[in-house]
Every structure is written in structure tokens, then in C-alpha cells.
Amino acid sequence: MNSNEISVLPTRVDATDSDKARRALAENGAVILTGLPTAPDALVIAAAHLYGQHIRQIFPIRERKSHDGNAVHLHADSFDQVVDIGGVATRRRDPDEDAVLIQCVDPPRSGGDSFLADAYRFVDTCADPDLVDFLTGTDVDLYGAWAGLRGLPATPRVARHVEYTRTGRRILRRTEGAVPLHRDPDTERIHLRLKHFEHTVRQLERELIRFTMAEGDILALDNYRCWHGRDAHTGDRMVRILTLLTAAAR
């Protein structure tokens, strides 16, 4: 497998140059937005510049702090979380959120470099036929490995790793929560395929191009197309994350 074919090195663009940022995102599936303050509002401002009137729904900003953190492997952001606020069911995450913005608030002392993979190219040119057949043709429970986690719906979220929106947009899922459906007669084979998928992705990410996020940088991703991860780091690190649905989401 040639990792250079699917490695993504995002262009750095001033966040206020909306046209250039949108072109870079459409071309590569990712762009680094610069020039905004290191503040929670910056993510909302960046989303407004990048997606404008096409924003359908914004979810709550999340902060992620880590000290001497382990590596975060390639994944696409995805979660199904509905909470009760004052007796009203309120969605805080969506399994089909199609846009992710990550701002570097506090870079680590060392390590923590980011890496991206173009999942479309992975499926189209690199993955072996048996794996592609599994990803496109087999239903799994996307979050079954996290059963019992507070806020996660009890009803299994059944989907395939590769699906399409009603307008034909392709979704490439990558989550560590996927398990076979309950009492699926093909459970053993599915377990093996999931392990093969994980092994293939772990091998892939070793050779991907690394890049560094500076304080204030915002990495914007097409969450249907790009998987992202980072290396282990020493010292303290903090990022803020905003996920959203655009008009083109499922």
C-alpha cells in the first residue's frame, strides 16, 4: 500500500478568505484556517466563513485536554448522543456529522503531530477487495463496543462503513465502537474483518505525512472523506472541537 497516495497535507489559508478556504477543502478534504484568536468563538466564526448559509446544525463545542497523551489513531468523528435538558430531548452529537473543526489551544511540549488520510482514495485504490466488500456490504452496530456509556442510545445504530447520502455524497466511517449486530449469524467473520480493518489502518498511518498545528490554528475537515489522528505527545495539550451538519449532510 502506498501511503503517499492517500496522505493529506492541508493548505494553510486565512480564515477570512472564504473562497480560497472552500476551494482547498473541496480539493483535499481538509484545510488549516489561520488568523483567528484562540477562543471558543473562533470555531463558530470559522464555520460561518467556511460554510455560510449551508450550516444546518452546530453541536456544542468540546474541549480535550491531555497530559503525556497516547497516540490517537485514524478515525472519523461520529457519535450518537441525545440528552434530556429540562424534559426536552436534545441532540449533542450526530452519527452523520459531516464537518469537523479542531482548534489548537495549547500545543504540547513535544510530539503530537497530526496526520490525515483520504478515505475515498483508500477505498478506491489501496484497500484489498475483500475489505472493500466488507466495508460496503456488511451492516454493523457502529457504537456497540461502547454499550452502557451514559447518553448513548440503547437502540443499536445499524449502518455500513461506506454509505451514501440521499444526494449521492459518500460517507467513509471509521470508529473503534463498531461490533457485529447482536446474534448476527456471521459474527465470527465480521469480527475478523473488523480486526483486519483496524490492522490495515494502523499500518497505513505509520507512513502518513505529519504536520504541526500551531497555537490558534483550526483544522477543518470533510468528515465524510478524511480520517484524522495524531502522534503521542509529552506535556500538556489542549484542543477545542466543533462538529456540525451542513446542508449536504445525510
UniProtKB/TrEMBL annotation:
GO MF annotation terms: dioxygenase activity
Domain of life, source organism: Bacteria
GO biological process: antibiotic biosynthetic process
TM region positions: none
Iron keyword on record: yes
UniProt keywords, alphabetically: Antibiotic biosynthesis, Dioxygenase, Iron, Oxidoreductase
Keyword field contains Hydrolase: no
Cofactor: Fe(2+)
Domain TauD/TfdA-like per the UniProt entry, residue ranges: 12-239
Record PANTHER family: GAMMA-BUTYROBETAINE HYDROXYLASE-RELATED (PTHR10696), TAUD_TFDA-LIKE DOMAIN-CONTAINING PROTEIN (PTHR10696:SF56)
Protein name: Taurine dioxygenase, alpha-ketoglutarate-dependent
Organism: Kibdelosporangium aridum
